[in-house]
Write a structure and sequence with these properties.
The complex is a heterodimer. Helix content of chain A is about 30%, strand content about 25%. Chain A is of the alpha+beta class. In chain A, the strands form five sheets. A four-stranded mixed β-sheet of chain A has the order 6-7-13-10. Chain A has a three-stranded mixed β-sheet with strand order 1-5-4. Chain B is globular and about 50 Å long. The chains are: A alpha+beta, B mainly alpha. At the A-B interface, helix 2, helix 5 and helix 6 of A face strand 1, strand 2, helix 3 and helix 4 of B.
C-alpha cells in the first residue's frame, strides 16, 4: 500500500482544502468513466480514492499520522463495484447516441452500411428476461392451478401452472419480461417452480406414492378402506392377508400430463393397536397357526 | 430490475434530486406496471453523476454537457469496435 500523501502528491502538512483540490484534480484525470479504454485507470483511481478517504477524514488522518492504522486499514470497498463504462460498452440502452457519427452512416460505403446495420439491431433488441421463483403446493403442481405473483418492482403477474409441473421446472411467459429499450419486443418472464412437499404424498415421475396405514384386522381379513388420492378419496380393496410393504396400484390416479396418466402406488403399512387389547393378546396366546407360518424362514 | 425506493437507497439519492435528474434526462429508467424500473446500468450512471458532481466539482450545467459527450463517446467506441471486428473478418475483437 502506497503512502496516501504520495498517492495524492501532497505534503504531510497539506490542509483539508489542498487534499480536496489534489483529489479532484486526479479524479478528473483518472476516473474510469472518463477513461473507458484504459484498464489501468481503475486501479490508479481506486488508490487515489482510498488515499482521499483516509486523508479527508480528520480522525482517520490523525490515526494514520500517529501510526495507529496503515494506509490499507482505512480502505473501504470501492464506491462503485462496476463503473458505468462496463455497461455502456453494450449497446441497446436508452443512453445510446448516434449524434457523434450520424454523418458517417449517410454514405453507401461499407462502414456506413455497417453502422446502419448496428443501429437497426440496437433498435430491435428485445427487452431483458426477468427471473422469478414461485413456490407451489404439491397438489397444485399435480392438478394445475393459476397463481398470481406480486412483483418486487410493483404490479402482478398471473401464472398458469400446468398440471404435472415438476420441481425446478421453468415456465416461460412470453412478453412478460422487461420492455425493450428500443422498439423491439419485451423480454420474457422465466418462472422457476419450487414444489412444496406434501404431508403424505410423494411423487416419482408420473406416479404418486402413498404409505397407507391399515389395522391388523384389515390386513388379516381384507377390507375396503378410504384412501386419499390427489383428486379426492376413493375406496381401495385390501386383499386378505396383506402385509406391510405390499404395493397396490390405483390406475390413472397419478399425475396426468399430455394425455398420459401415472398411477397412484399405495404401500401398505400394518399398524398394531397402540392401546392394550387383552382379547387380542388372549387369542394370540392360544393361537396355533394351521400352516407353516414362519415370517423369518428366508433369513 | 430495481424499483424507485430501492434505487434511491442504493444510489444514495433523495427524491427531489432524482426528479431533477429525470427531468434533465440524465437518467432514463424503464416503466414496468406503471412504476419506474431501474437497471444496474442506471445505478452505475447515478454513481457516475454523483462522482462528477461531488468529487470533481462539475456543476449542474456542466453535468449535462459531460453526460452528452460521454454518451457519444461510448457510441463511437462501439461503432469503432464493430468496424474493427468487421475489418478483422468478423472475428470477435479483443478488448480495446
Amino acid at each position: 500500500m502506497k503512502d496516501p500523501y504520495e498517492t495524492l502528491g501532497i505534503a504531510r502538512t497539506a490542509s483539508a482544502d489542498e487534499i480536496r483540490t489534489a483529489y479532484r484534480k486526479l479524479a478528473k484525470k483518472l476516473h474510469p468513466d472518463l477513461n473507458p479504454g484504459d484498464k489501468q485507470s481503475e486501479e490508479r483511481f481506486k488508490e487515489v480514492a482510498a488515499a482521499n478517504d483516509l486523508l479527508s477524514d480528520a480522525e482517520k488522518r490523525r490515526r494514520f499520522d500517529a501510526g495507529e492504522i496503515d494506509a490499507s486499514g482505512a480502505e473501504k470497498a470501492p464506491p462503485n463495484a462496476r463503473y458505468y463504462r462496463d455497461y455502456a460498452a453494450e449497446g441497446g440502452h436508452p443512453y445510446d447516441s448516434q449524434s457523434a457519427y450520424g454523418d458517417f452512416a449517410q454514405g453507401d460505403d461499407l462502414f456506413a452500411e455497417l453502422l446502419r446495420r448496428r443501429a437497426e439491431q440496437t433498435r430491435r433488441r428485445p427487452g431483458a428476461d426477468l427471473y422469478y421463483e414461485l413456490p407451489v403446493d404439491f397438489l397444485d403442481a399435480v392438478n394445475g392451478a393459476t397463481k398470481t405473483i406480486t412483483l418486487p418492482q410493483g404490479g402482478t403477474l398471473d401464472v398458469t401452472i400446468p398440471a404435472g409441473v415438476e420441481d425446478g421446472q421453468t415456465l416461460r411467459l412470453r412478453g412478460k419480461g422487461a420492455p425493450s429499450p428500443g422498439e423491439g419486443p419485451p423480454g420474457d418472464a422465466l418462472v422457476q417452480i419450487a414444489v412444496k412437499p406434501h404431508r403424505y404424498f410423494t411423487r416419482e415421475g408420473d406416479d404418486i406414492l402413498l404409505d397407507l396405514p391399515i389395522s391388523v384386522k384389515e390386513a388379516a381379513l381384507g377390507a375396503e378402506v378410504r384412501t386419499p388420492t390427489t383428486t379426492g378419496s376413493v375406496m381401495l380393496k385390501i386383499p386378505k392377508r396383506s402385509n406391510t410393504g405390499d404395493m397396490l396400484r390405483l390406475r390413472a390416479k397419478g399425475v396426468k400430463t399430455r394425455g398420459r396418466a401415472g398411477d397412484e402406488l399405495v404401500r401398505l403399512k400394518v399398524m398394531m393397536p397402540t392401546e392394550a387389547e387383552p382379547e387380542l393378546d388372549a387369542f394370540l396366546a392360544d393361537w396355533k397357526p394351521a400352516g407353516a407360518y414362519d415370517p423369518r424362514k428366508e433369513m | 430490475m430495481i424499483n424507485e425506493r430501492e434505487f434511491l437507497q442504493r444510489a444514495r439519492l433523495d427524491r427531489p434530486t432524482l426528479t431533477v435528474w429525470l427531468e434533465e434526462e440524465w437518467l432514463i429508467p424503464g416503466h414496468f406496471a406503471d412504476e419506474l424500473s431501474f437497471t444496474d446500468m442506471d445505478l452505475a450512471r447515478a454513481n457516475l453523476i454523483r462522482d462528477l458532481r461531488d468529487n470533481m466539482g462539475v456543476n449542474h450545467e456542466g453535468l449535462g454537457v459531460v453526460l452528452h459527450l460521454l454518451d457519444q463517446m461510448h457510441s463511437l467506441r462501439r461503432a469503432l469496435a464493430a468496424a474493427l471486428e468487421d475489418a478483422r473478418g468478423g472475428r470477435s475483437s479483443p478488448d480495446l
